[in-house]
């Protein structure tokens, strides 16, 4: 990787290490600052000595790395919203009636019955406050005026509620995801339970939202189909709320869901379009400066129209640095600019590293910039049409290699038709961006003719049909692929070492590549050994009881009253995250054994006086009418678990009794599933 700034890579890796290690170390801010000070003094002293002696050693690099590890630790602590003494969790408690003043920050995809938004807490009980919540407002079809917009100010008296944890193992942890976004509570409201006022002054996001609403109003007289309008909003305006589940599923199965999230792909295509349009300016220094300025302004204007979503802000920042790097005409300017933008973004907001979009965007762009020139050097067609599609194939392969490990880890599927889909979709996206921006401009000037709007509708409709056709080729869509975090790291090492070996075949590079190839099967064997242990779970399912047991032979057994009670997602989640060999269904019994533990299930019959039984766990199901104090006196060492088949009032009463008796109690309504080791 000649030309890449190795110092910048070292500092980025150090910063990343600090951010990722922060939760494990859990150091206080004072400790992190002292560590930073010590590392900085040692680095400065070492650097001064080396400078005087005109020598170099690895100690300087290690100390510089340590300095930025400490910076990562400090940044995680400083950017934690819970550090703020005015955070709402410092001023009130969950399930407490509270006066709230909220400001709508972001509109999310609505549910069937309610609209969802992210709101900022401005005041609690008339005191200044801070922090973000997720707000669910019941839809009112008779009063559309209650629909919320960005920057709307709401006044209400209600309770802050905890966000529900996962109800089953390996389920998407929505609570953890929201907490990574700084959201720690939710509020559920009906339309008549709050007062809505308009803001005195709009934010940049609010102005962008007003602009998007105005664009959609201008397009209302034109006869767009529902799906075409949804795709238009997703591609041009960054709004995916109107996408149907069926349409989204088609794009996922075809392997092109990334085009519906305005991000690096769209900003990159826009940058290439602007570069092409401005190419007649020539390559003089003054024209390069003008071209760079126009492209950067165009990128940020597009970011404004799409509402400054996190993915667009990341992409705009990334390509701004790339443009500046190209302006300076540096070798490997694109890769250095990419690394610089990632470094600055993580320095400002370290939690970005946990966002899937951030990881996928940077992985895709990095591998396109690094691998595409290598692939293109193998063969360069003379025919322009063949060359264009050959370049598309190479870009698609490079991007897919870059995101493949992460895609398998997060989504556990591989679309075998991704290459065919991208050969059609990528040119279509470039065309639709130009066409769509023209439609927006003409509609804003009231000059949009009907035939142009109809043409856009036809193009998007045929694109949707093509995607649907690709998605229906099921046998090439590989699902439920097990892929662990260790395999992600090893796969990237294999791809990277292969790329390095591709440049030049040497003994060291060959040894590195073969070592990573050997490490993959070794990791799978180790995983196979580690997962060969028994596990038992009490799942949460409303009005149902479902237990899950994984045997040492990696057979998955679901215990329930009816096999139909088990959601398909429960099974898929296990298959995607465990090396499962077989899945079975069995009926519920009253006594289970797991390792050295005995589990007693008590249902509505309330039978528990069993001779010679000494359970380690007692699972209360179907709201049994019993005296819990008497049960606890008979089995004083048992841990109590209440699942979702019980009435909440019964669970609350049991919880209070267990707290008084100092007996461990787990409520799946509040804490999600329970794992018995």
From TrEMBL:
| Cellular component, GO, one term | plasma membrane
Name of the featured protein:
Competence protein ComEC
Protein's organism: Leeuwenhoekiella polynyae
- Entry membrane topology: Multi-pass membrane protein
Q: Which residues form the ComEC/Rec2-related protein domain?
A: 235-502
Q: Could you tell me which residue ranges the DUF4131 domain spans? A: 27-191
Give the record's keywords alphabetically: Cell membrane, Membrane, Transmembrane, Transmembrane helix
Pfam family of the protein (one): Competence
